[in-house]
Amino acid sequence: MKSRTGRWVAALLAGACAASADTNGVEALRAEVKGRGWIAFAARTEAGDLDLFVCRPDGSAKRNLTRTPEWNEGLPRFSPDGGRLLFRRIPRKETFDNNHHGAQGVLLLARSDGSDAKPLGAAGEFPWGTWSPDGRQILCLAPKGFSIVQLDTLATVRSFPRKGFFQQPAWSPDGGVIVGVANSFGESWSVARMDLASGESAAISTTDSCTPDWFPGGTDAIYSWRRPGQKGYGWTQLWRTAGAGTPPQLVYAEEGRHVYGGHVSPDAKYVLFTGNGVEDGDPANGGSPMGLMRLADAPVIGGESPAFRSLHPKAGRGPVLALPSGWEPCWTFSEAPGKP
Amino acid sequence: MNDRIALIGLSLLLAACGARDRNDGADAQVRSLGTVEVTARLVEVPEGAVFHRDLYDYATILKYEVVAVHRGAVAAGATIFVGHYDPWKPRAEAADKRVQGIGGTVRRFRAGDLHRMALETPMDDVFMGGIVDKYFGKREGPAYWAVWTNEAN
Residue B33: which domain range? Predict the structure, then answer.
C-alpha cells in the first residue's frame, strides 16, 4: 500500500504529464465545448457521396443524418431553435459549386436529427433559402431579387431588389439586416449588408470577400477575405466586423489553408470554420478538417505562417480544435440533433 | 483570248477572296437573341479584367463603342459596357450548366476588335454571380449582358 505522500507525488506527476500533453490548451478547449450542443456539416462518406453529419463540438459522436448514396447533400442550416434543418440535395453525379450551391438542386426541410426530410420545391426553387430569425420564413435570392417566403404556405410575402447581392445571404438575428456577397461596391465582389426596412446597402468588406454570417447579437458579421498584397494568389482568412466605420478584426489565418465558412456558436464564444488547402473548398474531393476556436483567443494564426505573423505579431497560436473533415458547419445548442 | 479569260478568272478569284474577308457577323442567333443587337468595337481590355480561373466562374465588364445598331434603343457612336461570362473561354465554349444560351464565334477578346453582339439589359436580371468591373465608379447606367458575340470586320 502506498503512503499518503506517495499518492500525492503520483497525483502531481500525473497532473504535470497531462498539462505537458496539452501545452496549447487543445484538450481543455475540447472538454469545454464537448457538451455544448451539436454541429451539422456536409462530409464525404466511404461510398463517395456527400451526406449530412452531426457531431459534438469536440468532434465526438459523429453520426450520419441522411445516408443517401444516390444523392449529394450540403449547406445544412439549423433553425434558430435548433429543431429543424434546411439543406440542399443534388444528384450524386453533380458536384456542388461553392459559389452556386445555394441555387443547386432541391431545398429540403427536416427535423434536426435528419428525420422527416421533405422537399420544399423542385430543383432550383427557393435559391439560397435561409432562415428568418423566428424560423417561420426563409429568405431567397434570385436574379430578379430577394424574396421572403412563408414556410407553412410557401407563399412569397415580400419581394425587393437585390442591388448586386448574388450569393450567401444571411438574415440578422434581430431581423433588420441582410448580409451577403455583392457586386456594386468595388471592382470585384464584396461582403455587404442591406437594411430590410429602407433597402439601403453598404459594403462591409470589399475585394474578394465571401461566406458572411452573423454573430448571434446581430451587430457583428464574420466573413472570409483574401486580403490583397499577399505573395501569389494568397490565402483566404477569417475576419469579423461590426460594419461601416468599424475596423475589421482578424479572427483566424493560416498560410496553406483557405479559411471559409465561419459560423459563430449560439453564445458567441466560439467560431467554426473550414480550412482547405485548395481554393473554393475543393468540393469534389474529400475535404479537410474543420476548425473550432474561442473568439476570446482571436486573432489566431495557425502553423508557421511567417508572412501572416509579421503582419499580426501579437496573434496567438490557438488553441484550435481539428474537427472531422467537412463543409458548411453550423452549430446549435439544442440536443434534438443527437436523437436518432 | 486566253489572256482575257485568265484576267476575268483572276478578277473573280480576287472578288471571292474579298467577299470571304468581309464578315458582318450576322447569324441566326445574333439576329434573334436578346433585345438589343449592335456591332461595336472593343475599346480596350483592362489589365486584370480577363484571366483564367479554374475554380470560379465570373463575368467581366468590357467597354465598347457602338458602330451600328441593328435592334434596340442604343445610339450609334455610344459607349456601352458589356458583361461577358467567363471571358477567358472562346464564346462557343462559355456556356455551362449555370449560364446557358450564350455563345458566338469570338475566340478571345482583343482591343480594337469588332463584335456583332446580341445583348440583354439590365444584366442583373439575367446573370447572378461575381462580376469583375474595372470601370467601377467610372461609368453610369446599367451594363448589358452579352448573349451572343460574333466576330465581325
Answer: 24-152
